[in-house]
Request: fold
Amino acid sequence: MNDITNTPRKPPQTLPRASATFDEYTLSEIRRAAATGIYDIRGGGAKRKVPHFDDLLFLGASISRYPLEGYREKCSTEVVLGTRFARKPIELKIPVTIAGMSFGSLSANAKEALGRGASAMGTSTTTGDGGMTNEERGHSSKLVYQYLPSRYGMNPDDLRRADAIEVVVGQGAKPGGGGMLLGQKITERVASMRTLPAGIDQRSACRHPDWTGPDDLEIKIEELREITDWEKPIYVKVGAARPYYDTALAVKSGADVVVVDGMQGGTAATQEVFIENVGIPTLAAVRQAVKALQELGMHRKVQLIVSGGIRNGADVAKALALGADAVAIGTAALVALGDNDPHYAAEYEALGTRAGAYDDWHEGRDPAGITTQDPALMARLDPVAAGRRLANYLAVLTLEAQTIARACGKSHVHNLEPEDLVALTIEAAAMAQVPLAGTDWIPGKNGTF
Amino acid sequence: MSVLELDTPTGARVVDLSTSSVRELNAALHALKADTNATRWQVLNPRGRHALAAGIDAPVTVEIDGHAGYYCAGMNKLATVIVNGNAGVGVAENIMSGLVHVKGDASQSAGATGCGGLIIIDGNASARCGISMKGVDIVVKGSVGHMSAFMAQAGALVVLGDAGEALGDSLYEAKLFVRGSVASLGADCIEKGLRDEHRALLASKLEAAGILGEVDIGEFRRYGSGRTLYHFHVDNVSSY
Reply:
């Protein structure tokens, strides 16, 4: 019989354990910061997990509600934006639009592809910092012209060529922040459109240079209306931070349309710490914006576009059910064009990343030819084929939203309502102001289960 | 009185804003073609209204007899707009071409983001004159307030009087000439020498403003970008 107590052996050791606080990503960022002395700049939206539309579920019709027949009974999707003051409101066939993304950040081919895809589905695209290109205007049947703090490329001819004007106050990825397009993407053409030397970093201002508050904004909107003879709908876009107050003030300032962009909304290039830590989730913003509109008696009179992390038809339907009139997509549209495609896996790895995680869009080396100004890379993106992919994707978003709406008994996607929804988590229930699933409890609204 | 009345002796079209609206004024101006014969316009009783003569795209002259509110002559193209009074915030905002002449003082952000053309201000301009200017030339016969030419990208700001604090902060390629004192320079704005080519440039701006010979060019000092902040670098962190 062996006497195990006399057998020399190493005492048991605990397994190596990574810190939940100092996880591998955090450690790598500390090392990177220590080596470079500069914060990380990247594109894309927040990558951390936050309460999202995934935390909501639809209640399909049973006995208390009567569903519509899929593939038989019509479920309309058209939306009219700018019915408050504009003489020429925008009529979209689907409630999904393309969010503002700049030429400079995106290649000309990418802008053309966005225009082709959106036009094929009867919806709009939006310019961005850098102004309007002929590629975009030429291929977008409906084009929203952004009036940005930087005013790069701003001119009255393009204002008049636009179908709507979006006064950008903020962006979901960086409410209160400006932008930084690094010099490597500033080609002669991009520089010329921005009236800056080629090759230098280009700062986009965080605030408009000639107005400082809602009273000024009201006068600014009046100026834009006067210049365009009150034809164009005027959107006001805010990054979601205080959506209740910002929406109310946008309405007070005369907006036809309010755009609320949640923290999952993307950007071309901003500090990682900003993207992940400033602003509130899209889910949390929608009901606050709708509440402001309802209290002012302006819901459906001033239209609401919601953006930030919209991925599928369920997200579209949930945003509409919570009170939005339309949604806008940015990152998802780029993926539909071909961004982060596994086809270029080897090249993404050569850049130190992988397909699906590439976000250094500001470096201008995008293998997919979308977020670059490199002619050779740009040429990889066929704007016709990419436009078709986007159109397909938009069609799927719409079909998915329709099929959910029909299941809830709705003949128009706008007839979706909060009562069609429940939440999986208390957090989502509180933010969306819908009941926790299986209960009639809406946190903060009633006290019963 | 009708919206628009022809003043026979001067040949000007007269719009009286005591009986007409700003919308009617601007609609009439926007309807003008490049070859219009209605080249002279007079606006009576402006009473500080906003967006007067905004968005003109024709080679006409509009004379505003009184004070203008915000964004007078905004995004002007081709036209000459004269304000016989003071102008509010953002006069000639994003001007593309033509001339805007304020006979009195101008409020904040005069010529903001202006891309071309010329702005003459006979009096003083307040804070942020020429902010983010992108090619416009601005001649201020009086003084300008703080943060003037902030992030100015192109064009020239000529100040015959004094400049407030932080002149030319974060300046790009715009050229600044100040005859009087400068309270302080903003980040990356430095004084530069006044060489012959700069004297010639300054002379051309003064000539365009109709005051060449009235002031001694040698009294001006030139300011421009130090270009040290054109690329983000941690060693410059104290400047950000």
